[in-house]
Amino acid sequence: MTLSASESTAAAPIITVSNLIKQFGRFAALRGVDAEFAAGKFHAILGDNGAGKTTLLRALAGLADPTRGAVSILGKTPHEACRDIGYMAHPSLLYDEMSGMENLRYFARLYDIAGDTRCSEVIRAVGLDPELTRPVGKYSQGMRQRMSLARAILQDPKILLLDEPFSNVDVNSAREMVGLLKGMRDAGKTIFVVTHQAALLEGVADEFVWMQAGQIVDRTHHLAAGLSQARET
User: Fold this and answer.
1) Please, what's the b/e burial string for 31-44 (b: 16 or more CB within 10 A of its CB; e: otherwise)?
2) Tens of pLDDT, residues 90-142
3) DSSP state of 20
4) CA quadruple 217, 78, 146, 175: dihedral positive or negative?
5) In the chain, beta strands by DSSP E
């Protein structure tokens, strides 16, 4: 089932993307993207390699400045809204020689978060032990992804932007991460997930955002609806 225009804009948008174009030399990774996204929803961003998914996520995070067009987040630019955004890149962005707690202490200082209380809270929230002294470089892939998520939620952002959070994670760990994200959405956070493992999000994501050749080509409530249209095109 495809979302109607009235349905997709029924709630006040937390993010507005206007004629967003991002070029790398002669290559246009984003080609005039226009979209509004409601607060407190779980958005799965899908598409083939090169469709523009990661570039869109980086533009929302303020890490890829538009060639043309604009992004508004909570009525601000992404740079102005940076404290309201938690970003989880495909690479972990963690320091392998440090423990999980040591990593979060470092990032906590960047947000002026004092003490270990908040760091311990988010480590426990993702299902890990804050007392674990093992360096992150010796974590399993599932543990690394959980710790990356802990880093992304450290400052209690309103918006989470996650790029391939289930990559190289076993099915059980991936499902547990989906459960964690669902709980965060239910608590009011707005979540965007770029993934090639869309089936994990069926029945959890509020909408599936389909990208092709740098544009959003469909937005559906259910995965199967978008898959059917993708096969037809």
Assistant:
1) eebebbbbeebbbb
2) 888 899 999 999 999 999 999 999 999 999 999 999 999 999 999 999 999 88
3) E
4) negative
5) 13-24, 27-38, 42-46, 68-73, 85-88, 159-163, 190-194, 207-212, 215-220
Tens of pLDDT, residues 64-79: 999 999 999 999 999 9
CA–CA dist 143, 88 (Å, integer): 14
166 neighbors 197 (Cβ within 8 angstroms): yes
Q: What is the pLDDT along the chain (233 residues), one digit of tens a residue?
A: 455 444 444 567 999 999 999 999 999 999 999 999 999 999 999 999 999 999 999 999 999 999 999 999 999 999 999 999 999 998 888 999 999 999 999 999 999 999 999 999 999 999 999 999 999 999 998 899 999 999 999 999 999 999 999 988 888 889 999 999 999 999 999 999 999 999 999 999 999 999 999 999 999 998 887 665 555 54
The beta-carbon contacts of 131-137 under 8 Å, at least 24 apart in sequence, are 131/101, 132/99, 132/100, 132/101, 133/99, 134/99, 135/96, 135/97, 135/98, 135/99, 136/92, 136/94, 136/95, 136/96, 136/97, 136/98, 136/99, 136/100, 136/103, 137/96, 137/97
195-233 burial: b if 16+ Cβ within 10 Å, else e: bebbebbeebbbbbbbbbebbbebbbeebebbbeeeeee
Using CA atoms, how far residue 142 sits from 75, 166, 169, 176, 208, in Å, is 35, 8, 5, 10, 24
